[in-house]
Amino acid sequence: MKCVVTGATGFVGRHLCRRLAQRGDQLFACSRGGGRLDDGTQVAALDLAAAALPTSALAGAQVVFHLAGIAHRHAQDADYEAVNHLASVRLAQQAAAAGVRCFVFLSSVRAMGAPLSDLPRGESELVEAHDAYGRSKRRAECGLRQACADSAMSVVIVRPVLLHGVGVKGNLRTLARATLRGLPRPPAGGRRSMLAVEDLVSLLCLLADEPPAGVSTWLASGADYSTRELYDALRSAAGKGRGPGWLPRLGWRIAARLLDFAGAGDNTYTRLFGSELYSSASVRAATGWRPACTLEQAARQMLTETRQ
Questions:
Q1: Which has the closest alpha carbon to 259: 248, 270, 251, 267?
Q2: How many domains would you assign to the chain?
Q3: Is 45 part of any domain?
Q4: What is the pLDDT of residues 61-115, one digit of tens each?
Q5: Closest Cα to residue 212, out of 165, 258, 155?
Q6: Whole-angstrom Cα distance, residue 276 to residue 261?
Q7: Contact predicate 166/14, CB 8 Å
Q8: Taking the complete model, does pTM exceed 0.85, yes or no?
């Protein structure tokens, strides 16, 4: 099967391309900066906001995995709109015109807006997205539904939760490093839905192999973990005992606020100790997919990379 992967050099893209190569699928990979994959496969340099995918790339393609997008927090609103929304809709229209069988779009739970409770959310529980990234992903989803409503091409929109795995960056990598350096045990409270990138890749391949008709939207979620559970798992994977919990909750609030001021992000305390839960019951029931990676496996992966 010939597959097109955009955003091929990103975190999810590298894992997906590796899986497709292992399966023996034919691959056209592209990303904004180009480069090479881990196995040496050439990745075409292509800015989808400025240029269309080459006609030759789509010739004979059965699946397009559209992973490319701007995810960092400091881009201009217009850039999010151009890349995450408008370029995604144009690419889907181009794929449909070329006779592609399935278009898989990697969206985000941030397209759903902020959670209003600590209960797991389903696909239809939406509020207004609160940042430019989330708004651009929501607009892309709506644009795909409108543009492809009458298309013979299957369109699958996947909203993954917080991902972990080999190559992950951001807060999880920071937590792993801090744990190895003696971070005190965090207080109890809060849980977040997480998913191994390998489990996400398995789902993307499954959906591409057996695409549902029309336009579908699904949440991709694994298990729910607290920051304390992640910390304990990292300590265990490092062969350490239970960490000392000498820092009171007020100290964690102050430290999180200092990180906010230092430019590490915003709402650090909420991201560490708030709850953000999502249910993947719909896609599990429809496809039989089940996440396989455990917290212990995830902790070992994070520590292996942190020590390198």
A1: 267
A2: 1
A3: yes
A4: 999 999 999 987 678 899 999 999 999 999 999 999 999 999 999 999 999 999 9
A5: 155
A6: 23
A7: no
A8: yes
- State residue 160's pLDDT score: 98
CATH number at residue 109: 3.40.50.720
How confident is the model over 145-193, as pLDDT tens digits? Answer: 999 999 999 999 999 999 988 888 777 888 888 998 899 999 998 999 9
CA–CA dist 9, 34 (Å, integer): 8
Residue type, 205: C
Q: Are strands 154-160 and 42-45 parallel, antiparallel or unpaired?
A: unpaired
Cα dist from 282 to 216, 223, 266, 285, whole Å: 11, 15, 32, 5
Helix, strand and coil content of the chain, in percent to the nearest 5, comes to 45, 15, 40
In a domain, 81, yes or no: yes
Place of tokens 């995918």: 53
- The amino acid at 273: F
Q: Which of 206, 223, 229 is nearest to 161 (CA)?
A: 223
CA distances from 274 to 44, 116, 148, 190, 295 (A): 40, 12, 37, 4, 19
Among 243, 269, 245, 265, smallest CA distance to 255 is for: 269
Contact 40, 29 (CB under 8 A): no
Report how far residue 230's alpha carbon sits from residue 194's, in angstroms, rounded to the nearest whole number.
11
Q: What is the DSSP string of 69-120?
A: ---STTS-HHHHIIIIIIHHHHHHHHHHHTT-SEEEEE--GGGG-S-SSSSP
The whole domain housing 38 covers: 2-166+194-222+278-291
Amino acid symbol at 43: V
Are 197 and 11 a contacting pair, CB within 8 Å?
Answer: yes
Element (H, E) at 30: strand 26-31
DSSP per position, 186-223:
PPS---EEEEEHHHHHHHHHHHHHSPPSSEEEEEE--E
